[in-house]
Write a structure and sequence with these properties.
The chain has helices at residues 2-10, 72-85, and strands at residues 28-36, 42-51. By secondary structure, the chain is of the alpha+beta class. Strands 1-2 form a two-stranded antiparallel ribbon.
């Protein structure tokens, strides 16, 4: 948990801003996971600080939710579709 927190602070993942009047706030929570190797021994303990996406209401703040991480396979899929469909990427 300390490693994740230090990473968030070092990389300037967020900035503290004043809460706007009459606006709801989506909370955050810690998610914990244990990663195992093939012989079922513990490789490492992971912690992630995630938003409570289930607290959002449809149509409210959906455009403002941001995830800075993407999988390499997602990028490959978009490039494949671009080539197959003749799309332009901007």
């Amino acid at each position: 948990m300390v490693e994740e927190y230090n990473s968030i602070m070092t990389n300037d993942v967020w900035e503290v801003v004043p809460r706007l009047e009459n606006k709801s706030v989506v909370g955050l929570r810690w998610i914990y996971k244990i990663k195992y190797v093939e012989d079922d021994s513990v490789e490492k303990y992971k912690a992630a600080f995630m938003e409570k996406w289930y607290a959002q209401k449809e149509g409210i703040y959906y455009e403002e939710t941001f995830s800075p991480i993407t999988r390499y396979t997602s990028i490959q899929s978009v490039i494949y579709l671009k080539a197959w469909m003749g799309w332009q990427i901007h």
